[in-house]
Design brief:
Elements: H1 3-10, H2 12-15, H3 29-34, E1 45-49, E2 52-55, H4 56-69, H5 76-100, H6 106-114, H7 120-126, H8 136-145, H9 153-180, H10 187-197, E3 199-209, H11 222-231, E4 237-238, E5 242-251, H12 256-275, H13 279-285, E6 297-298, H14 307-311, E7 318-324, E8 327-339, E9 342-351, E10 353-355, E11 362-364, H15 368-383, H16 388-395, E12 407-412, H17 418-426, E13 432-437, E14 440-450, E15 453-464, H18 469-485, H19 489-498, E16 504-505, E17 509-510, E18 515-516, E19 520-521, H20 523-531, E20 541-543, E21 546-556, E22 559-560, H21 567-586, H22 593-600, E23 605-611, H23 624-630, E24 643-644, E25 648-659, H24 667-682, H25 685-692, E26 695-697
Antiparallel strand pairs: 1-2, 1-26, 3-23, 3-25, 4-22, 5-16, 5-17, 5-21, 6-15, 7-8, 8-15, 9-12, 9-14, 10-11, 13-14, 18-19, 20-21, 24-25
């Protein structure tokens, strides 16, 4: 699942929260009326797909849009390639759909949204909370009721987040259906496939593994790797240019002294932490890393690894410092008391603050006095006999419970604002109270409580174990000195050897990547690699608290990869080819299998009931050439020439091919399976179209 899809699934602000159902606009006719309009002005071209430009401003808008949908929890660096892929696929699908006359009409879209199998986001919005069933009538009514809000920018956000992708998906499904409808497996082929699937062979063989020759004795040159690449072009063809580097790392990680300094800092705060009566103010003043939950939480809801130790603390007692992840922590037991396992409440919220859907921050919407005046009016109506449900609908600002009579049904402790939580779990059933939270003022009634357990209020003072400035400076200076003394490949390798630094190779990375495999995220390092020539040595790059000095080793332009770029893959393959030649020349001699075994110092081995459709050969692994030879009837009872396989060299003597009883699939079943497999391959049609497309990617000029 892509990052964008995860965002859509989790982006509650689009469909709930402060926006609520009211922001679902009438998007059918209006969507089709407006879909041809550009949402952004002119800008630089970030790319072209078959000649159709993608405007940089439009692209940036979409990246920012998805970033806001997830409140910045997913980094832009992750979103940029995801958005690019989405926009490329969207363009290609739309281009192909236009050629074929494929479209999604308003009536079709209506059927998709309100039909028997609506999209997940529609089910989440319009399912009956009691039955869990999708309520199409309510959905239609609410869509129709808000036609007047088509100019609301949040409506356009909804279109962009959900409706546009739904239309794209429907077009792609139509395109796929056209292709999959043409899939056909003829009778003769299915019969042949069925016969092959039921064929078995037996054979004897002699096998010499490549591991019998040490790698160090077989050298592989760049020319040999290049010849192998040219011989197998499809395996090493690249749609984009790539680079590889070798690098050395100077650790900027915290030292033992750094760790001890953090621990000592907490030790000195221990007594002050124990004596304070205002844990929240104390933690804020000390720059606490962990957010303090000033509420009682049941033991089952606390996920601390050492919680059993913490539960034994008396109120006011401190435990620690102890290591939790990459931090030192002091834990203080603030309070203990018996609470229910879960509680049900209903409430009316008069908000003083509301979450901004774009930033996720709370923004003021009314002052305290106005909020309390409004809440007093709501409470007065209830006390004068008005139904709680009707008052909720009129006064409450909580979209999460407004349609449910203000009810939150049997929730566990620790899930609500601390003040709200503590009343629900420490009050009594039937009790009411005005509770003040970060969102505003709540009139809360406790409807029910289940179970019983011990609840804990624990305060954590957490400090990260971070490298000191001294440690960071030492790593930075060492890296700078190494880079200054290593201005070419020979100096780089010599200096690394003298300083006993390990030179590590990277895998290939592309021009628009933000991460170098094995090194970490560093857009600057990627850009450096594309701005320099092989043999260049970089200045230090700060990556994941380490300093990295890189040597540019491989440059592969679009087309066949260079030997250096794919060395880790190609070198073992070429080495095995050379080992095969040595084994064949020195060991695989003789006209009979027994003679070959004697000369190779091996034994004659046997395989029975080898299936033609098998993926592996017992004891040998993935050896398709072995299987092919074993079923070659022209070779029956003859000794084959030496065959260089994936894991070694073997000589084989096929001794019989027969058919098993047809206890598996019939020809008709084989036909259906083959057709189904081909239809599944059709689902990759966008990838095939993309590979065939003329794509100009200019992202590296902007990011």
């Amino acid at each position: 699942m892509s990052v964008i899809q995860k965002i859509r699934d989790k982006a509650a602000w689009i469909v709930t929260g402060a926006i609520g159902i009211s922001l679902l606009a009438f998007i059918l006719q209006d969507y089709f009326f407006n879909k041809g309009r550009s949402s952004m002005g002119n800008g630089n071209t970030i790319g072209k797909i078959n000649g159709q430009s993608i405007d940089r401003d439009v692209f940036e808008h979409k990246v920012s849009f998805y970033e806001q949908m997830n409140n910045g929890q997913i980094q832009r660096n992750q979103l940029i390639p995801q958005v690019w892929d989405y926009m490329v696929n969207q363009t290609i699908v739309n281009q192909e759909s236009e050629k074929l006359g494929l479209d999604v009409t308003p009536n079709e879209l209506s059927d998709i949204l309100f039909g028997n199998n609506p999209p997940q986001f529609m089910q989440q919005l319009f399912s009956d909370p009691k039955t869990g069933l999708f309520d199409a009538n309510t959905a239609r009514q609410r869509f129709a009721a808000i036609k007047a809000k088509t100019d609301d920018p949040q409506v356009q956000n909804f279109n962009e987040a959900y409706i546009d992708p739904q239309i794209l998906q429907t077009k792609a499904e139509k395109y796929q259906s056209l292709i999959s409808g043409a899939v056909y497996v003829p009778k003769w082929m299915s019969e042949k496939m069925n016969a092959d699937a039921n064929a078995v062979s037996k054979a004897s063989y002699v096998y010499v593994p490549y591991t019998s020759i040490s790698d160090s004795t077989v050298k592989v040159s760049a020319d040999e790797m290049e010849a192998y690449i040219k011989k197998h072009p499809k395996q090493f063809e690249r749609d984009e240019a790539t680079r590889t580097i070798s690098y050395v790392t100077f650790s900027g990680a915290p030292t033992a002294n750094d760790s001890a300094a953090v621990r000592n800092e907490l030790e000195q705060l221990k007594n002050e932490f124990a004596s304070t009566n205002n844990e929240k103010a104390f933690l804020n003043a000390k720059g606490n890393e962990a957010q303090y939950y000033n509420g009682v939480i049941g033991g089952k809801e606390i996920k601390q690894a050492i919680k059993d130790t913490l539960f034994n603390l008396a109120p006011g007692q401190i435990y620690g410092p102890y290591v939790d992840g990459s931090s030192y922590v002091l834990a203080k037991m603030v309070a203990k008391q018996t609470i229910p396992d879960s509680a049900t409440v209903r409430h009316i919220l008069v908000a003083t603050n509301q979450q901004d859907p774009n930033s996720g921050q709370l923004v003021p919407i009314r002052d305290d006095s106005a909020a309390m005046k409004r809440l007093d009016s709501a409470i007065a109506l209830i006390k004068n006999g008005a139904s709680f449900d009707s008052v909720v609908i009129k006064y409450s600002d909580d979209p999460g419970s407004k349609d449910k009579g203000g009810v939150y049904n049997y929730f566990a402790s620790g899930q609500m604002d601390p003040a709200f939580n503590d009343f629900a779990f420490t009050g009594k059933v039937g009790e009411t109270k005005v509770v003040h939270t970060a969102y505003g003022y709540h009139y809360v009634e406790i409807l029910g409580q289940h179970g019983s357990e011990t609840g804990y209020k624990i305060a954590y003072l957490s400090k990260p174990i971070a490298a000191s400035q001294e440690t960071d400076n030492a790593a930075s200076n060492a890296a700078s000195q190494f880079a200054a003394a290593s201005r070419n490949q020979q100096e780089f390798e010599t200096n690394a050897k003298n300083k006993k630094l390990t030179i590590l190779p990277s895998q290939e990375f592309r021009e628009n990547d933000f991460t170098v495999p094995g090194v970490g995220e560093s857009r600057e390092l990627v850009k450096w690699a594309y701005d320099n020539k092989p043999g260049a040595v970089s200045e230090p790059f700060n990556v994941n608290a380490n300093y990295v000095v890189a040597l540019l080793t491989g440059v592969s332009e679009k087309g066949l990869a260079s030997p250096t770029a794919v060395q880790q893959t190609v070198e073992p393959l070429v080495r095995n080819e050379k080992k095969a030649q040595i084994i064949i020349a020195q060991q695989m001699k003789g006209s009979t299998l027994e003679q070959v075994a004697q000369n190779a110092h091996q034994t004659v081995q046997r395989v029975d009931s080898l299936s033609f459709s098998a993926f592996v050969v017992p004891q040998l692994g993935n050896e398709p050439q072995f299987i092919g030879a074993a079923f070659n009837k022209q070779m029956l009872n003859k000794v084959s020439s030496p065959i260089a396989g994936n894991s070694g060299v073997y000589v084989i003597r096929p001794e019989g091919v027969s058919g098993t009883a047809n206890v598996g699939q019939t020809p008709e079943m084989q036909k259906q399976q083959a057709e189904q497999m081909l239809k599944q391959q059709v689902s990759q049609e966008v990838s095939a179209l993309r590979k065939a497309a003329d794509i100009e990617d200019n992202r590296s000029k902007f990011y």
